[in-house]
From TrEMBL:
This is AP2/ERF domain-containing protein. One of its GO terms (molecular function) is DNA binding. It comes from Anaerocolumna chitinilytica.
Length: 274
């Protein structure tokens, strides 16, 4: 068998062989991936040589015909151009960086997040971005205080209109709590709380966001006491002590229609998941 530079043979547990390609640059050994044949591995190695030792090609020049995975292409380009090896497909710019999900899909992040995303791989499923953190899938929008149930354009927005620009200055959180949104009622701006049970029910309108969030919790508690088994999210008010929370909880009023709905649940003995 001919010898191919940059390629070593390896074996799976069942004895089947495969080939690993790698290259050393600036005293750093970089894996280029695993391949079915030594020739494929060598092609990836030769491409990597052109990129990092001969300074050939730019980020946009990528082609699948090079035999090198696009993720490795980005890693090599960043190491060559910026002198920093990062194991994830990140390319550094001035004051921000690009994280590539694919050749045509990338996101912008502040450099403050570089350490985190340098060690946490982003996955995209169903249009949502996740990282694996302590064995759990974590939505990356949670880093901005955006809840999993939040709706773009309603609960948060991208100031410049680019939903791929995830720099902190570009994200505005509009609604911090579940079931709460800022609205106008009879020409006055207020915080409206609603809860969903076979359609949306108005809980009430309140002067502060925290009051509306607590009213949502109170409405959810009332429904559960009367037999509703729906698993309502809980709004956590982190900067309020128990006494202040309890006082507001007691004093906040719930709409008459919702109270009537809850009473009917209790009277009719319904034990239903909505």
């Amino acid at each position: 068998m001919p010898q191919y530079p940059g390629v070593t043979i390896a074996y799976k547990k069942n004895g089947e062989c495969y080939y690993r390609a790698g290259i050393t640059y600036r005293n750093k050994h970089i894996s280029l991936g695993s391949f079915n044949s030594a020739k494929q591995g060598n092609q990836a190695y030769e491409t990597a040589l052109l990129v990092i030792r001969e300074n050939k090609y730019n980020l946009i020049d990528y082609s699948e015909n090079f035999g090198l995975d696009f993720e490795k292409w980005v890693i090599l380009m960043n190491f060559r151009d910026n002198g920093i090896y990062i194991k994830n497909p990140i390319y550094l710019r001035t004051n921000y960086f690009l994280y590539y999900i694919s050749r045509d899909t990338f996101f912008l992040f502040d450099t403050d997040d570089l350490f985190y995303y340098g060690h946490h791989k982003i996955m995209m499923r169903g249009g949502h971005l996740f990282v694996s953190d302590y064995g759990m899938q974590v939505n990356i929008l949670s880093r901005y205080g955006i809840k999993n149930y939040a709706v773009a354009g309603k609960d948060y927005c991208f100031i410049n209109g680019n939903e791929h620009d995830l720099r902190y200055s570009n994200i505005e959180v509009i609604n911090h709590y579940h079931g709460v949104f800022y609205s106008k009622h009879k020409s006055l701006l207020c915080y409206t709380a609603k809860i969903h049970i076979e359609g949306e029910y108005l809980i009430g309108r309140y002067s502060s966001e925290k009051e509306a969030a607590i009213a949502y919790n109170k409405a959810a508690d009332m429904l559960k006491r009367n037999g509703c088994k729906k698993n309502f999210p809980v709004n956590y008010i982190s900067d309020m002590d128990e006494i202040e929370y309890a006082k507001l909880y007691h004093n906040l009023r719930i709409s008459k229609n919702l109270r009537k709905f809850a009473d009917n649940l209790n009277i009719n003995g319904l034990n239903k998941e909505f």
